[in-house]
Amino acid sequence: MASTDRATSHAREWSVASAIAALTLVLAVAAPGYFSWENLSDLLLANLPVLLVAIGMTLVIITGEIDISVGSMFAVCAVASGILAKTGVPIWIAGAAACLLGTAFGSLNGALVAYLGIPSIVVTLATMTALRDGLRWATEGAWVQDLPSSFQWLGLTQGQYPLVATIAAGLITAAFALGLRHLAAGRAVYATGSNPLAARLAGLDPSAIRTSVFAILGALTGLAAVLNAARFNQIPTNGGIGLEMKVIASVVVGGASVTGGTGSVLGTVLGVVLLAAIGPALTFLGVSAYWERAIQGAVILVAIAADGIRRPSFRRLAGVETGARA
Amino acid sequence: MLSSARRWFPNGEWVLLLVCAVEIVFFSAVAPNFLTLGNFFEITRFSVELGLLAVALTPVIVAGGIDLSVGSMMGLAAVSFGSAYQTWHLPLPLAAACAVLVGCVGGAVNALLIARLKLPALIVTLGTYSLFRGVAEGITRGAVNYTGFPSSFLFLGQGYLGGVIPAQLPLFVLIVAAYVVLLHRSVIGRALYAIGFSPEGARYAALPVVRRVALVYFLSGLTASVSALIYVAHLGQARSDAGAGYELDAITAVVLGGTSVFGGRGTMAGTLLGLFALVSLQTGMHLAAWPAELTGVLTGVLLIATIAADRHIRRAGPARTVEREDVEVKNSQVAVLCGAMFAAALIVAGTNVWLIRTVRDGARQSDGPASPAALRRITIAVMPKAKGDPYFVSCRAGAEEAARELGVDLLWDGPTSLDAAKQNELVENWITRKVDAIAVAVENRAGISTVLRKARARGIPVVTWDADAEPDARDFFVNQATAEGIANALTDEASRLLHGKGEFAIITGALSAANQNEWIAFIKQRLEHSHPGLKLVTIRPSDDDRDKAFAETQTLLKVYPSVKLMMAISAPAVPGAAEAVRQAGRTDVNVIGLSLPNINKPYVHDGVVQTVVLWNTRDLGYLAVYASALVAQHRLASGAHGLEAGRLGTIEVRDTQIILGAPMLFNKSNIDRFDF
After folding, report:
1. A141 contacts chain B (CB < 8 A)
2. How far apart are CA A244 and CA A49, in angstroms?
3. What is the largest CA-CA distance in chain B?
4. Do B266 and B307 meet the contact criterion of CB atoms below 8 Å apart?
5. 3.40.50.970, 3.40.50.720, 3.40.50.2300, 3.20.20.70: which CATH number matches B483-614?
């Protein structure tokens, strides 16, 4: 079972990679301007936050859970970091506080899921609404303005910041990719997702693992919020709307199964790249904005359906069953 | 007695019954006119569209699946209905059949992918969630808004049977009955529970798993399309954003009703109770004039608390065995009862504090100089299009200023995001609450007019502001600037900056935003007539998200290097576009747009943004409250040619329009004088 799982998840990574290759080819012929250095670096910088959240989401999805509150969390953390920065504390403390706040929200989600046994989609549906409306209530929609000048680019210059942010995100990605594959803690995440009961019998603590993956997702969301906020000099209070959908779509296109137990950081990176590349690519190709959403939905469906047709359905059914019983 | 409770509500729905009871008792104490038959029927009216989705989702979730695409399906079905009726000129029943057919096809697509190809439901419907909404936007190009349906059709959503019963209620009851039979009284229903409990076990028991699972998704598409028809009849318009966000509310109702998202457990009665708890919470909050944002927070808390209580009971009792009628059940029930009592006690304590505070406030006010008048303070209810929007936040400051000057109570509430259906709901609530005047910034002209007429018929004066309703549905319209005036000001400014020749791009709000689409139409008209040298190369959406406007502008700057001007026509989009232009170092590109001065000050001073076009929003809120108060006190009636509006002096009244003045241009020289 494990070997087939690994084989199929690699298959997904290949199919996403070939989709990216095909897109690259089309763009290279039709719109070579897409590959200009400025465009690529802009795209990279804009999608680093999505990547970070997606990595956290990968962990959560591997354990067979889901978190749809990340968009609201993202907005709350960004606003919190801005408000702190305005009080005059050093930028890095404000950033760290936002990460901590994200960790706290994530742990809350995780604890409700793991220790009270409430399904994660219900918990995070509730925290999504509560955080979003709570933020609206608290700020009444007013943006955080007059930030200290060191807030934008986190005290760096516009030239240095992308490099530093990319290196940081790259290191985090690599750490999670390797850790998930080679560390005992990483394997424990897979074990919890494929069969929590067996994981418990093998001496693991599935509840603690679930809580920690939610906490990690929260921390990464906080970090992503700060990295995103730092590209601007004011912070809107309606940020991150729809982020959860974007992130979950990227992770799932990258091959993680929402029933738990499968998925990889590499797949997620590819999924993020595909979904991030496709929107601007449609603009470059001159596709009208009115059809963009339909095309994006179709691409997701095709990427997933291709996988479903290839897999033997009985094994899928069994997989669904294990996940559902979790 | 306990055992009979078990028999009637096998899933602990009585917890929810308790929640409903607490809500009813609580809101009847706090909110005026909450406990009336009229309000009960109004509540059912708002709940029908959402209720249908929740009812359709129940068997889906019982069978262990999920359908996130129902809200988008509503949008697609509404648009299909509208275009079949208006564009293809099909007779109404055929058009409705078309919409239902589209619903069936959409449901079938989900069914095929989920049941046949065995793909996870969450992902498939996440995909069709984008796909359906996207196709609806594609068909209408975001902009087309089908209206002008015959009144016999609108009766379905707006009329009353026998004067009291909302017309859509019988249809709802019928569909619910059909679903109850399907889920609880048929072999198919039993199969769904078996499948939800264990799909593999169901297969070994020789149940047709694929066909049964396909059926529920098919039915959910079908029901969503029926819900769309009622929605169109209710609001009088078919737009691509119909039902946006409904899927989450519907899922909340189902889950609140005790249906397990893991499948195998749940009842229709639970879903209806969950729906009722959710909707009466929202209505109660509106009637009690508490901020709408609090509803979201409370819904979240309610959801977690209910499920946690339910889980707790389940864990305490023997899992998934036949419950015996003895003590082990009682323990957990006692625990929940205690919890509920504790919660109720907290709420009562909370209200007491709140009541004391209001009484004290009232006492303080009556000590003031105008004590006899203060006893009969009038209440003016003012609704923005969306509460969190900085634009309306700045209007509110003016509204509060006017309320203070006039000594009236201001009730400021509205949807938290653009939502025509919520606006109707709120006006209905205000009618029930018997406020003294209603002032609405209309999101959807056709949709809200019926309910505004109803308010007028009940003797409540109605003023519209920011955007108008049908002229006969309101007493006055506070007109800040016409769409044409805005479009002309923006286009002329663009022409001035480009010296009459060059290319420009528009960053709009959401593709389906009515205001923006109207402005775009007038901008195109102005270009054709007065500025033939200007060329509009593309229109991109920002969804009122600063970050998205930023990304879109970055891409645009590269794809269209010849574009020398970005025109952003949504408040958060202007700073987004400006930041992108600044970071790209493109000093040759101008940014103008329709936005608020405060969020653009840094860019205007840096010379990135040349001009921001807007009227004084603070004055707009001020004038809306002033006019409403005067109408309510019978000091302003039709036929007037002017009114004295406090610090604004004499304001011109043209016919039934109160004219605020021409739009203002904010630039480096004057922007610091404004703070909103």
Report:
1. yes
2. 12
3. 87
4. no
5. 3.40.50.2300
Q: What is the mean pLDDT of chain B?
A: 82
Strands B563-568 and B609-614: unpaired
pLDDT of the residue at A324: 38
Query: What DSSP string runs through A101-120?
Result: HHHHHHHHHHHHHHHH---H
Chain B interface, best mutation among A301, A317, A321, by max B CB count within 10 A:
A301
Q: Is the pLDDT of residue B420 over 60?
A: yes
What is the domain partition of chain B in residue ranges?
1-35+295-366, 37-282, 377-480+618-661, 483-614
**3-state class (DSSP) for residue B188:** helix
> Does the complex come out with an ipTM higher than 0.95?
no
Say which of A280, A300, A309 has its CB closest to residue B127.
Answer: A300
Q: Do the domains spanning B37-282 and B483-614 agree at the CATH topology level?
A: no
**């809120």: which residue's tokens?**
B621
Question: A247 in contact with B at a CB cutoff of 8 Å?
Answer: no
Most confident of A195-209, B37-51, B249-263, B642-656: A195-209
Distance, in Å, from the CA atom of B542 to the CA atom of B33, rounded to the nearest integer, reads 41
Could you report the per-residue pLDDT of B554-605, keeping only the tens digit for each?
989 988 989 999 999 988 899 999 999 998 888 899 999 998 888 888 899 9
Are B127 and A233 an interchain contact pair (Cβ–Cβ within 8 Å)? no
CA atoms of B145 and B142, how far apart (whole Å): 9
Across the A:B interface, residue pairs with CB atoms under 8 Å apart total 240
Q: Chain B: give the shortest CA distance to residue A277, in Å.
A: 11
Q: How far, in Å, are A78, A95, A97, A166 from residue A92 at the CA level?
A: 13, 5, 8, 17
- The class of domain B37-282 in CATH terms is mainly alpha
Question: Does residue B675 surpass a pLDDT of 90?
Answer: no
pTM reported for the whole predicted model:
0.79
Q: How many CB atoms lie within 10 A of CB B155?
A: 14
Q: What is the mean pLDDT of residues A254-259?
A: 82
Mutate to test the interface with A, among B61, B113, B116, B131 (most CBs of A within 10 A): B131
Domain that holds residue A187: 2-321
Of B102, B71, B118, B271, residue with least CA distance to B183: B271
The 3-state DSSP class for residue B563 equals strand
How far apart CA A302 and CA B223 sit, in angstroms, is 26
Chain B environment of A128 (Cβ under 8 Å) = 248, 300
Q: B77-115 pLDDT, tens per residue?
A: 999 999 999 888 899 999 999 999 999 999 999 999 999
Residue B343: the pLDDT is 57
Q: Which residues of A touch B247 (CB under 8 A)?
A: none
What's the total number of domains in chain A? 1
Class of domain B377-480+618-661: alpha beta
Q: Does B267 touch chain A (CB under 8 A)?
A: no
B619-653 in b/e burial notation, b at 16+ Cβ within 10 A? bbbbbbbbbbbbbbeeebeeeeeebebeebeebeb
Percent of chain B at pLDDT exceeding 90: 27
Residue A57, φ and ψ in degrees, nearest 5? -65, -35
Task: Classify residue A40: in a domain, yes or no.
Answer: yes
Q: Which of A27, A112, A152, A238 to mutate against chain B (most B CBs within 10 Å)?
A: A238
Q: Is B6 helix (H, G, I), strand (E, B) or coil?
A: helix
